[in-house]
Amino acid sequence: MNKCCLLGLCLVMASPVMAEDASGLPELTQEELEQYQFVVDRSDVSITELSIGQRYVLDTQRREIKDLIARRLGVLSLRDDGSTIRVLQRLVDEKVIPPAEIRDWQSLGVVFGDMLVHDFGLHWVSYEDSLGDSKALRWKDTDNFVFPVTLFSKRVQFEEKIDVRAIYDKLAAEIESFKAYERSRPEFK
Question: Distances in Å between the alpha carbon of 87 and those of 142, 153, 169?
Fold first, then answer.
């Protein structure tokens, strides 16, 4: 199996067949190189339901960011009608969260993740690998994950421009892609 990570999204796909050179290393054309999916050993990965403590942390982060939105932007609730993206973008554009406030940026990622849960039927899980434990979104019981908690804090860390709508649209396309891929597999039906 191969795994592709993009914008905090991981997708596992079947391996392409490639020619090998004398050293046993695959020879790739330019097109194959652009489409290459890296092989990842999942034997050290553990996926479990969120613990009570992890759920408490997420709930606390949701409450903190919603309180910040209410205090600084005057928005008293976030709705499921698309306006949440505009509210989150206002937080970014108005520089409400200082770059050093990593927890607040991660709380923004939690609320963004909740939006993905609502819009795409994902669910929160605990994803533990050799690098540590993360809260992730998973689609059904597949190997398709999105890691929204650090989505914004990492962009801030690397001083990247944050376009919430563009990030959402890119993830939406990737999520729909892996959902379509899974639906096409006979064992999924």
Answer: 31, 17, 16
Residue extents of the structural domains in the chain: 46-188
Q: How many CB atoms lie within 10 A of CB 177?
A: 14
Return the exposure string of 9-25: e unless at least 16 CB atoms fall within 10 Å of the residue's CB, then b: bbbbeeeeeeeeeeeee
Span 122-137, pLDDT tens digits: 999 999 998 899 999 9
Which three-class secondary structure state does DSSP give residue 12? strand
Residue type, 2: N
pLDDT digits (tens, 9 = 90+) for 70-90: 999 999 989 877 899 999 999
- Note the CATH number of domain 46-188: 1.20.120.1090
pTM: 0.77
Helix then strand then coil, in percent of the chain rounded to 5, is: 50, 20, 30
**Length of the chain as a residue count:** 189
Confidence band for 3, pLDDT divided at 50, 70 and 90: very low
The whole-angstrom separation of Cα 106 and Cα 176 is: 24
